[in-house]
Design goal:
Blueprint (H helix, E strand, L loop, with lengths): L6 H20 L7 H21 L13 H5 L9 H14 L3 E4 L9 H16 L9 E4 L20 H7 L1
Parallel strand pairs: 1-2
Helix pairs in contact: 4-5
């Protein structure tokens, strides 16, 4: 055992080595193993938590849906189901948001963002008679390189230089 390594650290190192071997074995277009998908999820969650921390959100305000289609599908073959829509409906009705921010419109239809957007759209359609929906604003956004054309923008939120730097 290396000096300073704890028992949990050994398990993490072992997991990392296992995933590294699986990544090497799968090549560029092979299917992700359960462990690789788990690691990718950890990375995305870490990115989301880091962003939330910068926005001064409490960890209790962060929710990860873990939609079934993430685990049941494979790259370029993901398909959502009623279970995904129900999980989203349940969360929306629990939280009763005043604002929903979404991306995925205009993405490749087989991509995870596009499928997630369709699930959200179906869930919102199912919730449209709920009282909270009339006070909920739906904001669509796009990432760098796929900005909205000027004529399609209903509202833009200007950023100060500090906010822009923080966003970057």
């Amino acid at each position: 055992m290396e000096v300073g390594l704890q028992r949990d650290d050994e398990a993490e190192v072992s997991f990392a080595k296992q995933v590294e071997q699986q990544l090497d074995a799968k090549g560029q277009f092979g299917e992700d193993t359960t462990e690789i998908r788990y690691l990718k999820g950890l990375i995305r969650r870490g990115e989301a938590r880091s962003s939330a921390r910068l926005l001064e959100l409490e960890p209790s305000q962060i929710r990860f849906l873990d939609l079934p289609f993430y685990e049941e599908g494979r790259y370029r073959r993901f398909q959502s189901s009623g279970k995904d829509v129900k999980a989203t409906i349940d969360l929306l009705n629990e939280v009763q948001p005043h604002q929903v921010f979404a991306t995925g419109l205009g993405h490749d239809p087989l991509s995870v963002p596009a499928i997630s957007f369709q699930v959200l759209k179906q869930a919102l359609d199912e919730c449209k008679k709920e009282s909270w929906v009339k006070d909920c604003y739906f904001w669509l956004y796009r990432g760098p390189g796929s900005e909205w054309p000027v004529h399609a923008i209903d509202m833009a939120v200007p950023l100060s230089p500090d906010e822009f730097e923080n966003k970057l």
